[in-house]
Amino acid sequence: MKILHINAVSGIRSTGRICSEIIEFINKNGHKGYIAYSDGIKARGYKIGTKFDHKLHALLSRISGKQAYFSIIETYRLLKYMDFLKPDIIHLHNLHGNYINIKILLTYIGKKDIPTVLTLHDCWYFTGKCFHYTVDQCYKWKEECHHCPRVHKDNPSWFFDKSRKIYHDKKKFFGQMKHLAVVGVSDWITGEAKQSLLKNAKIISRIYNWVDFNVFQPVNSEDLRRRMNLENKFVILGVASFWTVDKGFYEFLHLSKKLPKNMVIVLIGNIKENIGAYKNIIHIKETHSITSMVKLYSMADVLLNLSMEEACGRVTIEALACGTPVIAMNSTSNPEQIGESCGYVVEKNDRKDLFRKIGLVYQNTKNYYSSHCIHYAKKTFNKSVCLNEYMKVYQEISGG
Asked: Fewer CB in a 10 Å sphere around the end CB: N or C, the chain?
């Protein structure tokens, strides 16, 4: 089989690494994997567009309120590549990255009747425009999106609310696909998909994101602690590509004011604001180095995932694999990822409970949780098992 993945990025960040790992597995099992992408690490396949096109697409999207409706020429160039490649299966990941025209792409797939796998890394595929909606308590997507409360969030619109049109376009194009498999990366998002415009897909299944346990495992990080002057400190880790209010950024700032002197927060990811005034927060810019991330996970005493909206937080899984307990919000998929004795869940906005549970990890020490974390991660997020499940989906949706 020839399987073409389409994603905003290749080899970097969560979705890019997922694509790369699936493709590597495909190739090792006698098939041929390719990727079409707009940014990231060069890979076998096709690079879509230029930086200028991506910026122009972003501008037009913000003006019009329609995300993934531009990059017309670049999308037709991709279709020429697809005509040449003749993939047996197309695997769609994130298309909301200002690089592709979804109407042109989905029309092509429908006319060619190419079996398609759709992985839900967030909720964008079954909403009018939103990546998530639980914080805003908006469930219009079950019937029809309109008057979007998040029109200025996610891919923001400056002027117009086009959520109704986008919703019906998606419903039309996905409804015309006879061989569509929808894969949710958690039980939570899979359950949501079954209530959405994707509910009539031929296959709807859950395949968790996974961890490569040959890479993500506890390592000695004492040298890193010394370099960062964190010896004898209790290290609280937070990880995101971009820190925003939705990722819990301001909760970390509030928490920093309550911590005793022997506790330090390390935030990894891009931050727009100046946090120099917060002396117990160490900021490290986003890194694509897996080796560095493994050391940072291993160094931490606890990972905080304070995001209220996660399809399947891969940083949580990676931290568990490195033996680090996790405290996360009791929302969306977060509770699924924290097994017994692997950490704690905290109710929304309950800062006292958050502080109390940090204290429990401090009191019990990381060693109390580590073996449970590793065992649960290996049992639940096993790379080989998850990748074989994708192969089964490919076989079934393509008719074997």
From this structure: C
CB 116 within 8 A of CB 180: yes
d(CA 34, CA 24): 10
- Going from the C-alpha of 350 to that of each of 189, 307, 311, the distances in angstroms are 24, 13, 22
Name which of 333, 339, 325 is nearest 380 in CA terms.
Answer: 339
Residue type, 156: P
pTM greater than 0.85 (yes/no): yes
pLDDT at residue 155, as a whole number: 87
pLDDT in tens, 64-84: 999 999 999 999 999 999 999
Query: Hey, where are the domains in the chain?
Result: 2-210+383-397, 222-380
Q: In the chain, at which residue ranges do the beta strands (DSSP E only) sit?
A: 2-10, 32-40, 45-47, 89-92, 116-120, 180-184, 203-206, 234-242, 263-270, 281-284, 302-305, 326-329, 343-346
Does the domain spanning 222-380 belong to CATH 3.40.50.2000?
Answer: yes
The rounded distance, in Å, linking the Cα atoms of 38 and 7 is 7
Q: What pLDDT, in 10s, does the model give residues 108-138?
A: 999 999 999 999 999 999 999 999 999 999 9
Residue 322 has what pLDDT? 98
Positions in the chain short of pLDDT 50 = none
Same topology between domain 2-210+383-397 and domain 222-380: yes
d(CA 287, CA 290): 8
Is the backbone of residue 210 left (phi > 0), alpha (psi -120 to 50) or beta? beta
Label residues 186-217 b or e (16+ Cβ within 10 Å = b). bebbbebbeebbbeebebbbbbbbbbebeebb
